[in-house]
Amino acid sequence: MLNKSPLWKSLLVLFVVAFGALYASPNLYGEDPAVQVSGLRGVEADAATLDNVRAQLEQDKIDFASIALEKGQVLVRFHDTESQLKGRDLLDENLGNQFSVALNLTPATPEWLADIGGTPMKLGLDLSGGVSFLMEVNMNEAIIKAKEAMVGDFRNDLRGEKIRYRSVKEGAKGINIQFRNVEDLAKAKSLLKKRYRDLLLVDNEDTLMLTASMTEQKLKETREYALQQNITIIRNRVNELGVAEPLVQRQGQKHIVIELPGVQDTARAKEILNATATIEFRMVDTEGDLANALNGRVPGSSELLYDRDGKPTLLKKRVMLTGDHIVDAGSSFDEYSRPQVNITLDSPGGSKFSNATKNNIGKPMATVFIEYKATDKLDPQGNTVFEKIEEVISVATIQARLGKSFRITGAGSQAEAHNLALLLRAGALIAPIQIVEERTVGPTLGAENVQLGFQAIMMGFGLVFIFMMIYYRAFGVVANLALGANLVLIVGVMSMIPGATLTLPGMAGIVLTVGMAVDANVLIFERIREEMRQGKSVQQAIHQGYDAAFSTILDANITTLIAALILFAVGTGPIKGFAVTLSIGIVTSMFTAVVGTRTVVNAVWGGKRLEKLSI
């Protein structure tokens, strides 16, 4: 019998729509205005902080809905924005500079719905409010660090091949390697030419010097590597901050854009994002005279550094290992209940550290904490000059040959050890960065954008609804039901996909989808009319209408989907947001406009003897 759907197909359509409606429903509950209290500079919020926050709010009679300690942060929910702002001002004034007090919006989803993974759509910066940073990577420091690494690599290579040299140091034009005779110079040039094909090697037999300099291609690759690695590391740090759906992407040759939706207080974000913390391991110079070094007579191969208490230590300049090889770090306590940081290295780092420590068992080794901080000075190119701050955090005797996993102590408190582990785990920035622009979008403006976008969607939906009702009558009602189901499915899918974020351009994509979704039904209904004008029966007209129009609908939607996927692949920011909702809308509209409407049409008109249709 024509136009009769099997029961399983009808149930499948109902299940898909109901499933989409279930996961779209968290968006109906809205969000509670909240204040988030988190620690700064290694301090963590704990039960005492929770009690302190509650006491202050109750003392000032500021009404709040709930308060809880979650993941080392105190989260206070309020009934309205006015109480939220009062609570923020109070806590910001009384908690001191050890805590960050940030405005936030927390989903009010019921617990049973959250337990099955139901969450509202993530809103972008333009809809939820938040902060945006434009950060500049200091490429000069990236080149300097690359040259410092080359000095160490050249020394290791020459020692490994037992080629004698006088010195390896940076010069004005590159790395200068001084030799004792022409034979060693020739051997070194041959060795380095094989291992470093992207370097320019120039030898001078008169001065017995070999100069290695970076080609333009190598300089370009170094800058590109610094930018890409910094993006990866910053993304890891943002994830450590626990910010939902952040955006981290490059802009131009040396800039990075970071958007943190929902964040209104930038103190904690700045501290973690701007930090360039790393560590170095160096041997203590036990042969040098510390007293002479304090008087300014520091040996050429050594350097005088201090710990946080001002205690001096004379260290070898040669770096045994840098933090670039760290793949994991975590904080814990040692057998004496002292805070420690457990470090795991990658394979090259483990091999390098093993070779560096095997001949130094019984000797003291220092762990040096390094941080770059921006100054008010500018270099001749107009770039900010960064100050390198070095601090000895521990000096320990090497008891055995160290490998891929080891631990360091001397971090101070457990909170400081945790913060250091966070930075090391996220990675050390290849080059220092600085914030050149900071923009804050308030929650009020975001709410206004949401309201205007929602009005645009409802207006588009309403006009299409009226047109379909008038022009196609009963079949127009079916098309409108499919259009409503399509909107529900778009919201449900956007809510279920972890990486999907709704932006203002994304709302434009939904409005466009509303118009496109009925295109399929227009094609089908017009084909049914045409078949009936040719004298076909009602059932034959319906059957031919759906079958004949399907290929046209499929071709049109596939070409649009390809365009949307290309926009998503090559676009950034707002373009991606538009492409996401458009792609989802195309797929869901194909289901609702073709499968969904046919199921309803078959249920209402299918298999019946009819002389005419309300179309």
3D architecture notes:
This protein is of the alpha+beta class and 615 residues long. The protein folds into 4 domains: 7-26 and 442-605, Up-down Bundle (Multidrug efflux transporter AcrB transmembrane fold); 31-107, Alpha-Beta Plaits (2-Layer Sandwich); 136-252, no CATH class; 276-428, Gyrase A, domain 2 (2-Layer Sandwich). It is built from 16 helices and 22 strands. The chain has helices spanning 7-24, 47-59, 81-94, 111-115, 125-128, 139-160, 182-195, 216-241, 267-274, 290-294, 347-358, 414-426, 443-496, 504-533, 538-570, 574-605; strands at residues 31-39, 66-70, 73-77, 99-107, 122-123, 130-137, 167-170, 175-178, 199-204, 209-214, 247-251, 255-261, 278-284, 302-306, 312-322, 326-333, 339-345, 364-378, 384-397, 405-409, 433-441, 501-502. A 5-stranded antiparallel β-sheet has the order 14-15-13-18-19. A 4-stranded antiparallel β-sheet has the order 2-3-1-4, with helices on one face. The chain has a 4-stranded antiparallel β-sheet with strand order 11-12-6-21. The chain is elongated and about 110 Å long.
